[in-house]
Design goal:
mainly alpha; about 100 residues
Length: about 100
């Protein structure tokens, strides 16, 4: 059957309705968020403990959560050097290990 010119389209999915898989993904994401919020204390403690053991991805995750994600500059100049000074007993041990590796 052909449509009469000027008549409205009918049928099909309503505008703004979501796909079934999208709804399932959103429900799973909400469930996961609720479960993480219940266990956030032990999760954060485990992440900090891993960071103290020089787990670089854990340290990066902690810093990004606190400071926000660091964006790389658009014009990357290879002549620019950034020095970060960390003080404390663990920092001194880390510096010594780096020096030993260079030898």
């Amino acid at each position: 059957m052909s449509r009469v010119k000027g008549s409205l389209k009918t049928g099909g999915r309503k505008k703004g309705s979501k796909n079934k898989s999208t709804l399932q993904t959103e429900m799973f994401r909400e469930f996961l968020f609720q479960e993480v919020m219940k266990e956030k204390g032990p999760l954060v403690k485990a992440l900090i403990k891993a960071g103290k053991k020089e787990n670089v991805p854990a340290l990066k995750e902690i810093l990004e959560r606190i400071l926000g994600r660091i964006k790389e500059p658009e014009n990357k100049d290879p002549d620019i050097t950034v020095n970060i000074n960390i003080t404390g007993g663990e920092a001194d041990k880390a510096r010594q290990r780096i020096k030993d590796k260079k030898k």
